[in-house]
Amino acid sequence: MENSEAVTVLTAAARLVQVEPPQMIAELSETLATVVPHRAVANLTPQCAGSPLGAVGDPRITSVITGAELAPFIGSVSAGRPWQGEAQIGGTEETVLTVASDHAPRGSVLAFVLAPGHRVADETLPLIQALWDVVTAHFNRLTLEIEPSVLAQSRAVAMAREVVAAELSDAHTATLAALLGVLRNRQIDDAAARTTAVDLALNALADLRTDSQRDRADAGEEPAGRAFQRLADSLQTLLRHLPVELELDAPSNDRLLPSDLAHAARVAVRAAVLAMLGQDGVRRIRVGWRINPTGLQATVRDDGPGVLDDRLDLGRIAERLRAQGGRLDVEAVPGWGLTLRIMLPVALSDVAKTARALTTTLSAAGKILTAEPLAALGQRELEVLERLAQGHRNRVIADNLHISESTVKYHVANILTKLAVTSRTEAAALYLATASA
């Protein structure tokens, strides 16, 4: 690395610690323009509740970059090991340099959009990594210093709501995957397929209504064997009509687990299995739990392609585990498959406990399964929300409803306000939960 590059990066660090978070990405882009020539740069820092996503550069790129595109990098790019290659940014395939940092509880990622085929010299990468670590740690400290008690409470509630929305989304995804498995199974005739599909839907609704009651019955603790069997039952239902063999490795001891820990492990494993099912060529999935004095380790293996690509949404799983005080380790061996190791401590974070309490409270009050939250929406807003829940982007929704894209954005903003949620994902999860009641 040339001395001039080192001076530029150090100068960038000195300037970045003096600016407010909203100006950070613009300052970084300008300062590093010669060291890392780029068309655009974006960052995702989940610990910054006000503005976690920032982007500057070519407006044709920055106007369409989403947090959902950057989030997977937090899980798939190892902190301290910058990655260069082709990835989906702004809805198109771009050459990118991504740098992840673990110098904040929920991690962070920086993504440079380079010229097609361009690579940054390997000797430059360590200094860029060090710069991003400094910036991540600095802004995490700033975030914690801003009215600590109020901000901590606000962040805990916001993160808990994210966990609840993600769990609802996973539950619906699992149900839909099971239904599709039945409907696509050519060995089942139409009448039997309809009957089985109805049974699956009714069972899923019953599970949503009774899950909180089963948790209360465990009185705060759950035998490891029973906790694992509940996971096994849900996975067997999910995979029963899919061409995937499920192998189960139950824990060797039946010690009592905190119910929060058992629940978090079941949710994380189910999310991992759903992610694996999105790959081609998966014919076998093996799930095992191991209990030790410090916590629980769940291992999920498949026999798929063993390649990390866009179809594996591991960033969301890693972020949720990090918020709970756990972590996700990923091992991909091309031609052999993927191994995910989920580690959860005995004492989960306050965010995990708040999320579990919020889920139980909402379930017990019947608020998750009622259509009341949607009563405040107008007809057009309901139409927009329905398509949003189907995963459509604003442009597609506008074309479908024959309205402008700016009108769609206006409706989405109103929907988030009326439903008292902070993201499209939460709104979609709430719609799916109430629509199925």
TrEMBL record:
SMART domains, per database record: HTH_LUXR
SUPFAM superfamilies reported in the protein's UniProt record: ATPase domain of HSP90 chaperone/DNA topoisomerase II/histidine kinase, C-terminal effector domain of the bipartite response regulators
Domain annotation HTH luxR-type: ranges: 370-435
Family annotation (InterPro entries): HATPase_C_sf, Sig_transdc_resp-reg_C-effctor, Tscrpt_reg_LuxR_C, WH-like_DNA-bd_sf
Keyword annotations: DNA-binding, Transcription, Transcription regulation
One GO term of the biological process aspect: regulation of DNA-templated transcription
Single GO MF descriptor: DNA binding
Highest taxon listed in the record's lineage: Bacteria
Matching PANTHER family: DNA-BINDING TRANSCRIPTIONAL ACTIVATOR DEVR_DOSR, HTH LUXR-TYPE DOMAIN-CONTAINING PROTEIN
This protein's name: DNA-binding CsgD family transcriptional regulator
Species of origin: Kribbella italica
